[in-house]
Amino acid sequence: MEAVVERENLKKALAQVKRNKGAAGIDGMTVDALPTYLKEHWLTIRAQLLDSSYQPQPVRRVEIPKASGGLRPLGIPTVLDRFIQQAVMQVLQAGWDGTFSEMNFGFRPGRSAHQAVERAQAYIASGHAVVVDIDLAKFFERVNHDILMGLIATRVADKRLLKLIRGFLNAGVLEGGLVSPTEEGTPQGGPLSPLLSNLMLDVLDKELEKRGHRFVRYADDCNIYVRSQKAGERVMAGIEKFLAKRLKLKVNKAKSAVAKPSVRKFLGFGLTSRKEPRRRIAPQALARFKAKVRELTRRTGGRSLAQVVKELSTYLVGWRGYFGFCQTPSVLRALDQWTRRRLRAIAWKQWKYGHARFAELRRRGVGRDLAAQTAGSPHGPWRLANSPALTIALPNSFLVSLGLASVAHQATA
């Protein structure tokens, strides 16, 4: 606990909580208000942490949409509790991280989802072309507190720290004005939760290593690579039994499978089952991209084309940062073309009437006949967005000049 409340550790924790921003907890205190609050009350809080009397507040329950559909419950601790959790996490992670499996790529410094996907690719290339894709049913909500605290106690001797962590786990949830106790689960939304989930699932990692399996894990996504369907089914049954008995965790049958990697997705990517497997963007991720771009390029809302491009580009740059890791450049080029067509359709809708459309096309270098033919066309904006007239009037270079980002790195026709 002395290491947790050490000045340098706290400075680092505060900086991280500020960087993460995030919503207020049940007390309404914002991240911006935290430094002033700490200046006034830190000595009292520090004393409470050191004498074991600190009481974490209940978390505020919110539900956010899951990428795959449905809602994911998030527990938002107060900013003060987030700050203390961050300080605890930094101390524990420094000691624990080096003991975790090489195949665990989630929530760890210097490790990433991209590295996990590359490792999976290497297994497939080495002839392990069947994947045992394990999805844990509601993992973060189902973690057994007693098992988790037992695992922490083998690594942490300080009773004050153990009591504080138990306090965070049991803090309860405020929902609809009532606080209900939490008897299992780690609140997704707190800085400590990812580290505790890694500790819990390290038991699975060590078992897979002991059994000599080739596997990759990222958070609660675990893929094991084997040579045949039969071996895969045997492994799935064995691991299911192990998880239920040792960790009291259930495998989600509907989302788990033994299959060719090409028909499964891993961290947003699909992997082709050839001698040299390639990373492609999973169909679900492409569908989500298109849904988001459609939302950002709605043809109503009274925003100028430049405003739409600015908002859209923020999303495109972030998306490319992750999915640009695919090995299918033609898919990225097609997405760029589709995005530009959406923007041309916006412009066409904004020009509204035939005479205004004709004038805009002429002003932008389109010949009289083509401009008249296009302006008088009965077709809708989407169809005409692909017409020669609009490609001349709003060339790629014009959209780039508005600041349009490309997911294929460079804009192409």
Question: How would you describe this structure to a colleague?
Answer:
With 413 residues, the chain is α+β, with helices and mostly antiparallel strands. The protein has 17 helices and 10 strands. The strands form 3 sheets. It has a 4-stranded mixed β-sheet with strand order 2-1-4-5, with no helix packed on it. A 4-stranded antiparallel β-sheet has the order 6-7-3-8, with helices on both faces. A two-stranded antiparallel sheet has the order 9-10. A hairpin with a 7-residue loop joins strand 9 and strand 10. The longest helix has 23 residues, at 329-351. The radius of gyration is 26 Å and the shape is globular. The relative contact order is 0.09.
